[in-house]
Each structure stands twice: as C-alpha cells, then as structure tokens.
C-alpha cells in the first residue's frame, strides 16, 4: 500500500506537435502528477530528505516537457514518468498531460492523455 502525492496544473510552454506551426509557435501544456510513495518514514522523521521533494520534481518535469520537441503527447508523457521514477521512493507514477490548444477543428475543452507506470514496467 502506498500513499499518493499529487501536483496538478504544472504549466509548461513547449513546441511539441505534428504540425509545423506547433513546432514553430509552441503552446501551453499542463501536467498533473500522482505519485505512489510511502510517506511513513518522512512523517516520523519530519525530514525532507526522507521523501520526494516536489519542488525539485516539478522543476525537473517542467524541464523535461520544455526540451527536445517531439510529435506525440504519448512521447512527452512517457518522458515525464521516466523523470518521476528516477527517485527510487516512487513506486508508481500517474501522469496526465493536457494539450488544451490542440489543433482540432471543433469546439472542445481539453485533450489529455493519462498514463500510469510502475517501477519495473516503465517501458512495457
């Protein structure tokens, strides 16, 4: 059994997409994270070193989203989970990547992809 740490609405500006104008102009992406971690040790010690530093994690996730443009949000979402699972205390990561300004010729409120990866099957 693990606890859940959530950080939602991480705003990033990046140049991902299959169309030239997406690569050229860029757009906003939003990231929601839910991480499975055991917080008992941190709670007992009251020591930040015993848990996931979500300030550092958010900076690392933002950097991962904003670098190296790719075509698909699937690729970006996997990149984010890889960053989350670098910390061995993270048992699993659920990442939702929102692309609210996706080039769709219809009225819609959001495009989002959610993936969940666990330690040991991050690329299965």
Automatic annotation (TrEMBL):
Q: State if Ribonucleoprotein is listed as a keyword.
A: no
EC class, as a word, reads lyase
Region forming the signal peptide: none
Q: What Gene3D superfamilies is this protein classified in? A: 3.30.1130.10
> EC number(s) of the enzyme?
4.1.2.25
Q: Coiled-coil stretches, from where to where?
A: none
Q: Fetch the SMART domains from UniProt.
A: FolB (SM00905)
Against NCBIfam families, the record matches this protein to: folB, folB_dom
What role does it play?
Answer: Catalyzes the conversion of 7,8-dihydroneopterin to 6-hydroxymethyl-7,8-dihydropterin.
Name the UniProt record assigns to this protein: 7,8-dihydroneopterin aldolase
What species was this sequence derived from?
A: Nocardioides pini
């Amino acid at each position: 059994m693990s606890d859940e740490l959530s950080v939602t609405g991480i705003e990033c500006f990046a140049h991902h997409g299959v169309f030239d104008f997406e690569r050229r102009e860029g757009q906003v992406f939003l990231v929601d994270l839910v991480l499975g971690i055991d917080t008992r040790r941190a709670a007992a010690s009251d020591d930040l070193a015993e848990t996931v530093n979500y300030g550092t994690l958010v900076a690392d996730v933002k950097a991962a989203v904003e670098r190296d443009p790719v075509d698909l949000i699937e690729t970006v979402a996997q990149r984010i989970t890889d960053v989350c699972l670098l910390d061995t205390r993270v048992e699993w990561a659920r990442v939702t990547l929102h692309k609210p300004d996706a080039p769709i010729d219809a009225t819609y409120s959001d495009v989002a992809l959610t993936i969940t990866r666990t330690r040991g099957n991050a690329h299965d």
